[in-house]
Specification:
- The chain is of the alpha/beta class.
- It has one domain: Ribonucleoside hydrolase-like (Inosine-uridine Nucleoside N-ribohydrolase, Chain A).
- The protein is built from 13 helices and twelve strands.
- The strands form three sheets. The chain has an eight-stranded mixed sheet with strand order 3-2-1-4-5-6-12-9, with helices on both faces. It has a two-stranded antiparallel ribbon with strand order 7-8.
- Helix 4 packs across helix 5 and helix 5 crosses helix 8.
- The longest helix has 20 residues.
- It starts with a strand and ends with a helix.
- The structure holds beta-D-ribofuranose and calcium ion (CA).
- The site of calcium ion has 8 residues, from loops.
């Protein structure tokens, strides 16, 4: 069983991903780390506390993380996607749970050093906490078992801008650092999450299952679904963060290929774009390929058995 840290910025779909992970015996969640992203860090942390309270899992520690990118300021997130409270404007109180005193980056370092080669990280928001942990303790890159992150777009357009996906755009400098480190990494980006759609019919069936956590996630989901209806003209939602959990449960659901990746960090219209190098022209004289040379290969999910992912998600959320 994988020991899992979920690094997250809840976020309506982060909430569902957490519910999915909690319902999956294959995963042993050893902690949740929060990060700014969809909304500010105070609110994402409150939301994580609330979600764990509703799940009746006070035993899982929550470590509060970064409030802003490694360079620059938090730009306000995407309340138009997730609601001003990040939970579809349901405005529920955080509840009785409290974060631990250890900050997220130190919690990650502590767990990885305590359990070498055993800790997996599901990164569902900007990669800031991971970049900070790496900066403080570079040794962790040799001791993490696997990092699977939701973010990026290899061979398709972005969702936050035509070029970039939202988690990468929230902190491109952190993403470029994390994607350049020497740890096993898998990218679950828009190449597959935009192929995986949770339809309104499936959501309606999931809503029939009653539990405090499911009731809340489904209530929050209405706002999220309205956003997709207005913006993408789809009667349902794409499955972003839960796709990482599906990958951890059953890797055979995804087809991957390996490429080194650079993230655009310049303040230009492509800021936050993940650029895989196909390497066709990579001979010594190809100076233009220098930025990708000696970068680690990252598994990029390029295709998905989408119906099976949806089936797995529905099964777990309603059990
Ligand atoms: C990602 O951005 C956030 O809005 C979602 O929670 C997800 O992690 C999708 O681009
Ligand atoms: Ca997220």
């Amino acid at each position: 069983m994988d020991k899992l840290i979920i690094d997250t910025d809840p976020g309506v779909d982060d909430g569902m991903a957490l519910q999915f992970a909690l319902a999956s015996e294959e995963l042993h969640i050893v902690g949740i780390t929060t990060v700014f992203g969809n909304v500010d860090i105070q609110q994402t942390t409150k939301n994580a506390l609330r979600l764990l309270h509703l799940a009746n899992r006070p035993d899982i520690p929550i470590a509060k993380g970064a409030s802003k990118p490694v360079q620059g300021e938090f730009l306000g997130g995407v309340p138009f996607v997730h609601g001003d409270d990040g939970q579809g404007n349901t405005w529920k109180p955080a509840g009785p749970l409290k974060p631990i005193n250890t900050p997220a980056d130190e919690f990650i370092i502590e767990q990885v050093l305590r359990y070498p080669d055993q800790i997996c990280i599901a990164a569902l928001g900007p990669l800031t906490n991971l970049a900070m942990a790496l900066e403080k303790e570079p040794k962790i890159q040799d001791r993490v078992k696997e990092i699977v992150f939701m973010g990026g777009n290899a061979f398709c357009s972005g969702n936050a801008t035509p070029a970039a996906e939202a988690n990468m755009l929230s902190d491109p400098e952190a993403a470029d650092k994390v994607l350049g480190a020497n740890w096993p990494m898998t990218m679950v980006g828009l190449d597959v999450t935009h192929k995986t759609m949770l339809s309104r019919d499936t959501l309606n069936r999931i809503s029939l299952f009653r539990s405090p956590l499911n009731d809340h996630v489904m209530e929050a989901y209405q706002f999220y679904q309205d956003f997709f209806m207005k913006t993408n003209k789809i009667d349902g939602t794409f499955v972003h963060d839960s796709s990482v959990i599906a990958y951890f449960i059953d890797r055979s659901l995804y087809k991957t290929l390996e490429y080194p990746i650079r993230v655009e960090t310049q303040h230009c219209i492509s800021r936050g774009k993940t650029w895989p190098s196909l390497g066709e022209a990579d001979h010594e004289g190809a100076k233009a390929l220098e930025p990708w040379r000696n970068r680690p290969k990252i598994k990029i999910c390029l295709d998905v058995k989408d119906q099976e992912v949806i089936q797995l998600l529905e099964e777990r959320l309603t059990q």
